[in-house]
């Protein structure tokens, strides 16, 4: 705590945002004066925070009381000294500090998403392996809209005009929002977020930010904070930034592609390549694990009803767990690289996924393949979109059913977490089904 105290004093911080991520990826916590934060060296939050839905509701009572203490007790949230960042958009000098969740005996809380990623990384560490990831975050800029029944529209750029049509990789189209992105880059630099390139993606006013490769926990923290940063920069310029998986009808969805590789922790060499530069058995087994278990772990990568709209036909997203070299029609793409940088890109997670859980799930699937020697299918040559034998669940309901019956996920993530996660997503799905859509009003109201 002493180093963090010095860090706060050097920056003349007056307030501290104490953060944890809930299952959905929403930042929950408390805002404290710096003196109170330093004195208490953490915070207490109700355990129930970790079982809130995106609407703020809770799971059914029988599940709630089977997973949590019926007295609704507090958990102990301790600051991670390596996860302290300034809040550059705040009016007063403010810091945000990510916390880890423990029970009163000092045990990690199983329902904590960050703890789940740490658990998966410990599996790799026990084998002498060091995973490396590089996320790519897609998102849309839109006009601000107060009425959720109205479709989203592209924002007005510097030219005074809305973007029309698709402008993949257009420099001029991205430059329409230069002032916004200058603030975003400045704020990311102030926080030490290791972002790399900015790309205009396929959709109208759809963008992508790539992160440099690094430690999975650090990158998950950075994605968690980047979403906050991007939204704040957009609001400053009177537009909105959304990480919904499919926010706009007839436009491509937004993904969080995860590039992942594994190094030998002792030597720093890739375990995905043999000495002669060819693909290693561990690499092929890693892909085999991804193919076998992604369909079971899909709700951790596609967590919402809206996530599955991204997987509809003709949406440009792969709806399979095929793999191929330099093949973007596969859910698992192996980019062209040197043997040391050999990696697989998991193209299935949506931008709406909780980064801690999506990265944990992706690495866990590959890990199980490595330790159990799961062989992959033959790599795909040509288009994989039309292939039917490696398809994913088409609905959240089906995906949740598969997830809750997966013995391997329960073994490695824990039954408590699995039951809690599925319960939260089922409540959200039931809430969604209570809403009457504009399609139903348009086509059924006066016709049936």
TrEMBL record:
Leading EC class: ligase
GO molecular function: ligase activity
Classification via SMART domains: Gln-synt_C (SM01230)
Keywords for the protein's UniProt record, in alphabetical order: Ligase, Magnesium
InterPro entries membership: Gln_synt_N_sf (IPR036651), Gln_synth/guanido_kin_cat_dom (IPR014746), Gln_synth_cat_dom (IPR008146), Gln_synth_gly_rich_site (IPR027303)
Entry superkingdom: Bacteria
E.C. no: 6.3.1.-
Cofactor(s) the protein requires to work: Mg(2+)
Domain called GS catalytic: residue spans: 113-448
UniProt cross-references to Pfam families, sorted A to Z: Gln-synt_C
Annotated family: Belongs to the glutamine synthetase family.
PANTHER family registered for this protein in UniProt: GAMMA-GLUTAMYLPUTRESCINE SYNTHETASE (PTHR43785), GS CATALYTIC DOMAIN-CONTAINING PROTEIN (PTHR43785:SF3)
The protein, known as: Glutamine synthetase family protein
């Amino acid at each position: 705590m002493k180093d963090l105290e010095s860090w706060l004093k050097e920056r003349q911080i007056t307030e501290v945002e104490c953060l944890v991520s809930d299952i959905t990826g929403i930042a929950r916590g408390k805002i404290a004066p710096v003196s109170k934060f330093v004195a208490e060296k953490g915070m207490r939050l109700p355990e129930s925070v970790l079982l809130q839905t995106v609407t703020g509701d809770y799971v059914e009572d029988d599940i709630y009381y089977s997973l949590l203490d019926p007295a609704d007790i507090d958990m102990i949230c301790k600051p991670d000294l390596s996860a302290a960042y300034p809040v550059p958009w705040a009016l007063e000098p403010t810091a945000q500090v990510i916390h880890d969740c423990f029970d009163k005996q000092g045990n990690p809380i199983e329902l904590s998403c960050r703890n789940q990623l740490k658990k998966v990384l410990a599996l790799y560490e026990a084998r002498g392996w060091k995973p490396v990831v590089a996320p790519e975050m897609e998102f849309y800029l839109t006009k601000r809209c107060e009425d959720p029944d109205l479709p989203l529209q592209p924002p007005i750029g510097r030219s005074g005009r809305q973007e029309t049509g698709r402008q993949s990789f257009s420099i001029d189209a991205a430059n329409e929002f230069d002032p916004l992105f200058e603030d975003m880059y400045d704020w990311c630099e102030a926080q030490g977020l290791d972002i790399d390139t900015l790309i205009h993606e396929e959709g109208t006013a759809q963008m992508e930010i790539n992160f440099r490769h690094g430690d999975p926990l650090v990158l998950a923290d950075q994605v968690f904070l980047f979403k906050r940063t991007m939204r704040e920069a957009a609001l400053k310029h009177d537009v909105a930034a959304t990480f919904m998986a499919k926010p706009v009808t007839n436009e491509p969805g937004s993904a969080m592609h995860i590039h992942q590789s594994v190094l030998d922790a002792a030597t720093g060499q890739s375990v995905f390549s043999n000495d002669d530069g060819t693909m290693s058995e561990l690499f092929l087994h890693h892909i085999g694990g991804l193919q076998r278990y992604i369909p079971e772990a899909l709700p951790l990568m596609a967590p919402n009803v809206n996530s599955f709209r991204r997987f509809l036909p003709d949406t440009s997203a792969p709806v399979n767990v095929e793999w191929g070299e330099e093949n973007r029609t596969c859910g698992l793409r192996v980019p062209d690289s040197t043997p040391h940088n050999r990696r697989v890109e998991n193209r299935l997670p949506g931008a709406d996924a909780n980064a801690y859980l999506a990265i944990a799930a992706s690495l866990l699937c590959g890990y199980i393949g490595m330790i159990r020697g799961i062989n992959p299918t033959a790599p795909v040559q040509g288009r994989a979109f039309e292939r039917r034998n490696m398809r994913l669940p088409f609905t959240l309901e089906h995906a949740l059913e598969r997830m809750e019956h997966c013995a391997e996920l329960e073994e490695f993530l824990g039954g408590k977490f699995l039951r809690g996660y599925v319960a939260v997503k089922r409540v959200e799905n039931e809430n969604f089904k209570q809403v009457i859509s504009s399609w139903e009003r348009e086509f059924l109201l006066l016709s049936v």
